Amino acid sequence: MEYLDFELPIKELEDQLDKCQIIGQESDVDVTNTCKQINKKLEDTKRKIYKNLTAWQRVQLSRHPNRPYTLDHVKALCGDTFLELHGDRGFKDDKAMIGGLGKIGGQSFMIIGQQKGINMKMRQYRNFGMANPEGYRKALRLMKMAEKFGIPVLSLVDTPGAFPGIEAEERGQGEAIARNIFEMVRLKVPIIVVIVGEGASGGALGIGVGDRVYMMENSWYSVISPENCSSILWRSWSHKEEAAEALKLTSTDMKKQKLVDDIIPEPLGGAHFDRETAFKTVEQYIMKGFNELKDLSTQELVAQRMDKYCNMGEFKE
């Protein structure tokens, strides 16, 4: 397990607990009470740390190297039923954007999402989860296929943003994302979106329009990352903590502003501390959202979705 800077007190206590247990195993000394005391202190420390996380610390947790990525969620949710589909039928297959058919709780879904990669080689292969235009066009192709066969869409968002390279712009990055937003608003099947990690900029919004949008507790959703915001406003990344607070990008902020529908709670310490519990909770919210939408007519579904997004940003002085 890797630890972030603010998690170091937890690491120290876990090391103490391990040493205490080893002493008990290798000698005749009764260390039961000592281990209980350390364990209690460990639990108290965890609760104190994770109850008072700053916006920047939640951004760090969303990027934790041990945090489950999109394909981890897909494997846990669908098991062996997931069938990956490839290519945009126009340019090539974008490895940063995955998509395919899978069953969750006996219900078929068309699943799309960004995949970052678990090590440096895989991150390069997946382009660090930053999709090119062909990735968004692949996602749209699969969504239109789902619409044709009446299959609900599940979108798992985890990206630092769409790929900003010149070749992506030459192939129409902005148009591809805008087209996806336009088509998703009027798609005639239920769309459930779960932000499982980073939800940055148009790269996230390109597959982020949905009837139900859920955020995992330690994910973030914003028009720009804290580092890039800091570099624009202060010409330096050193103000990223201040930028994170100002952007109001946490799940609590998003729910308060009514930009997402609900927050998916994570185990104490984050999804990476107890993956199985995190996967089960995500599945419960997905099925809850689907059950709320499955009996709506096509007209009601699209009308409610359009009303939902038209009402965003309204305020009274």
Protein described:
By secondary structure, the protein is of the alpha/beta class. It contains 14 helices and 8 strands. The chain has helices at 8-26, 32-51, 55-62, 70-78, 120-125, 133-149, 166-170, 173-185, 201-205, 226-233, 240-247, 251-256, 275-293, 298-310, and strands at residues 83-84, 97-104, 107-114, 153-159, 191-200, 212-216, 220-222, 262-264. The radius of gyration is 21 Å and the shape is globular.
The unreliable regions are: none
Coarse structural class: alpha/beta
The biggest sheet, with number of strands, parallel, antiparallel or mixed sense and barrel status, is: 8 strands, mixed
What global shape is seen? globular
How helical, in percent, are the residues? 40-55%
Number of DSSP E strands: 8
